[in-house]
Amino acid sequence: MNTLTSQQDFRQAMRSLVSTVTVISAAGNDRRQAMTATSVGSLSLEPPALYVSVNRITGLHDLLARGAPFCLNVLNAGQQPVADACSRPPTGDHRFNIGQWAVRDQTPYLADAACNVFCTVGPSMDYATHTLFVGEVSRILINAETPVLLYGEGKYQSSPNNGSD
Description:
Number of domains: 1
Number of helices: 3
Shape: globular
Radius of gyration: 16 Å
Oligomer: single chain
Strand content: over 45%
Strand order of the largest sheet: 3-2-6-9-10-5-4
């Protein structure tokens, strides 16, 4: 049996993980950045913290590495166009033409997202092409209960509900 894993095998295995679709947004040095991400997760309840994985070649990475506060926008089921716009090059302001963007404490966020988690940058760790950033939660906005946008098996889906029963 061959124990080596190809990138294609790994990619196929990761496609089977269904994930909530988010957009990480930040601003600094007179520019805004937004990036679609599914490599995010809860890290700690006390103190409240999460993690995000960001490719080091992105403009968003540069902002987070400099300590820019950021927002984790959890997309609702109707925000696939936002996810698409923030997942493709080029980066920059064109991404902010889609969706209902607002600014709070100099951080751009999607006002109509299912929820917004505002963070300051905590410790980080580099691994291969990415950096894991800890987001120390400073504020949370929860919008109306709505299904969230999911991604798995190479396609978008919507959750049956937002997880509250």
